[in-house]
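Dear Dr. K.,

Following up on our conversation at the group meeting, I've run the structure prediction for 3-hydroxyisobutyryl-CoA hydrolase from Protea cynaroides. I'm pasting the input sequence below exactly as I used it, so you can double-check it against your construct before we proceed with anything downstream. Let me know if the numbering doesn't match what you have in your notebook.
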Amino acid sequence: MAPDPVNPEEQVVIAEVNHLRLITLNRPRQLNVISSAVVSPLAKYLEEWEKDDDAELILIKGAGRAFSAGGDLKMFYDGRKIEDSCLEVVYRMYWLCYHNPTYKKTQVALVHGICMGGGASLMVPMKFSVVTDKTVFATPEASIGFHTDCSFSYFLPRLPGYLGEYLALTAARLNGKELVALGLATHFVPSEILPELEKRLISLNSGDKNAVKSVIEEFSVDVQPDEDSILHKQSIIDKCFCKDSVEDIINSCETEGSIEGNEWIGPVLKGLKRSSPTGLKITLRSIREGRKQTLLECLKKEFRLTVNILRAKISGDVYEGIRALTIDKDNSPKWDPPTLNEVSSEKVDLVFQPFEEELELQIPAKEECRWDGNWFYMLFLVFIIVNKKKICGKWLEDGHSCKSECSSAICVQNKKFEVWEFCFLVTNSGSLVE
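The predicted structure tokens came back this morning:
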């Protein structure tokens, strides 16, 4: 039995067939970018299915010519004048980025076409990730004043040598063959037979890892990076991108690029020099820290960086980068500050500073509580801190009283949010309403 046809009105289409669950990212005209309308159902269904014994195999794919081009840049840009307008989608996404690598059911990503930034966080951590001759991967965030996020400050530093720094700073692209060679994908399947693989997995109707692997291997082929692949330039990449600063990396690239046979470095240098100086410096530090951090530590760090960057704490480059790339499309960003030497270490320090513990990304330490600490908990704490309320006791400013004991309503120590005896919503005026 095949899943129902895709509904063009829904940004995420869900199909449930016996023991199979199929997720289709369904914004093909926008290259399946990730908005709050995408993250929310993903988190909801993945949590439900992990707890559902009937759900065994999870497939995820993208409609059209992209798997997912990452975060919805227009969403960020449109919310630039309202502080923390995108806090919910950011929090949900990073929270989900922790649960995907640790997911209890068998997941298969069918990655055809563009797979960039946050979209790749739905590929790399999966038990099985299938790429094709049409797959294109990149982490281009630094170039527009952002940073390499969605768990990639953890995954990229674990690539050979200093390839992670190279990918994060230059937005260089990898194809399907290269992804398999690096272990960022598990299997390569020719694009023309990918639909047949999907049908077979649906008919398999089982989450048994060996059975799923066997089916995929019927369609997959062994591949090696092409002769001109960047993976064959590892020694030069290491020599340039091992440096301690962006300035030294650029100087080293200039030196190596002057040597006959290294003409490929020219476009790399050009890209580095037109990228956001602030984005480059934040990204390099994040990747370097990620070499020694756990996945959880990386995600907590990325959450701080994203919130501070979107708040324009040290620079508004991310909005200027988005404007130049996707709004006005003039490809002529005016960075502020415009040069690397004006982005001091002291400035960069500011976006790495931890928040109050209650406002950090909340990932439960205990396995039995792994789905606690979600967005609803964060929403409550944001309201508490912004409006200077008490966690329990009376809501003196609004005249409302807490109707539950602290032990059953909010347990900060366990980072747990449970349903109150009354419902509340935060209105535009910031008041608490029963």
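Two things stood out to me. DSSP finds 17 helices and 16 strands in the chain. The chain has a mean pLDDT of 87.

Best regards,
J.T.
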